[in-house]
């Protein structure tokens, strides 16, 4: 994939993911704000209902006590009756309309204890009014002689009852003004406030703990819950005991300590579902990005592998071609020594190419679990010595050395001799290839608990931390640009890890740039 196109694709996917997360966050924030607004409206409505019910209850108490007091007095102190009427005559129908409205005024002497207030006079005069309204319709009929007449009643409607609402309001105003002189804790109780607030909130679907308090002109009264604390930001209030001028000295204040939790829980289901889908998208996005990066890395590794394989096959092929051309030369074909030397070169180069192909095929079979690895009781020290003989001449040719420090008291393991020998050879070969000067290699063994630890230490070029993390990956080789000073195709250490894992062992490395590397192989003892 083109690098620029890859970067553009990653940027677009990242922007879309960031946009999605932003939209989800904005939606959750707006949902909480909407829920908070709905909560405020519901609470305000509930508190208004509570204060109205308290006020109506107080008025009813006064009315009940007033009627009881009036009935207990029995005799009237004074009675007045006023009667208003008018007459209207319709000349077309000879009908006369008579409307009468009488008001009966009754005075009672009621003790001042009615209002529970000792500051008023010994007797408070309260009047009861009763309204009587009568509508009568008469028809005017002449006598037979045409001189006299009589009134014949056609319809009569009579209604007896109380006065109009405006008169009722006047009585309520009287009660309200007297009630202002009563202490607030005698007008309403804590139990009444708690029960009413709880019931009104529950009727509106709000099941949440609350604290309350009644304040008089901004100052607290005795009516408040134990944990109530005044906070301007988290208080809902409603005026209590409002008079006919709309003025109130008291406010019912309610706070909700767990309001935020309640609001969050109200949208928690949808929010969690939204977050779940967002998480799925993030995981899918991360997986896609990882796969894209991985594919890009694999593409680069394969390109390096092909370049290295091409380079490594190119040299043997060129050598074989030159040897064949030399043998075909009439001057050389008669020289048996030279022909033998060129044939040996052809054989060696062919063997080298065959080994590389076998290495690739071996890794492929290992990945498909098609490689049959039988294990026998073998001595790890013998395998190490055998592996050293495979590379000893190369090390000596370069003026280096391989020293062994086989100090393990027990060295028998269950392993495949051929494959495990190849493991040690690959690690030794790696140490030789990455030694810029004469290879200096030390091999150690020791027993760690119930395992043997094999340590191969060199003083070569070493590896950076980034390379060290990926050194056992298939096809991976440290980038050296276009310089192929180290031959290989990134399969040797991948093969090592596969074989060691198959032996229930462990392989790892330590390295520092320009200070050499140390490879560790840990196998269980038998």
UniProtKB/TrEMBL annotation:
Q: Is Aminoacyl-tRNA synthetase among the key words of this record?
A: no
Q: Any idea which UniProt keywords this protein has? A: Kinase, Membrane, Phosphoprotein, Transferase, Transmembrane, Transmembrane helix, Two-component regulatory system
Please list every transmembrane segment annotated in the UniProt record, as residue ranges. 6-28, 267-293
- What is catalysed by this protein? ATP + protein L-histidine = ADP + protein N-phospho-L-histidine
Molecular function in Gene Ontology: kinase activity
What InterPro entries does the annotation carry?
A: BphY/WalK/GraS-like (IPR050351), HATPase_C_sf (IPR036890), HATPase_dom (IPR003594), His_kinase_dom (IPR005467), HisK_dim/P_dom (IPR003661), HisK_dim/P_sf (IPR036097), Sig_transdc_His_kin-like_C (IPR004358)
- The EC number(s) given in the record are 2.7.13.3
Tell me which Pfam families the record gives: HATPase_c, HisKA
Would you indicate the residue range of the signal peptide? Answer: none
Pinpoint the Histidine kinase domain residues: 308-526
Name this protein carries in UniProt = histidine kinase
Source organism per UniProt: Maribacter flavus
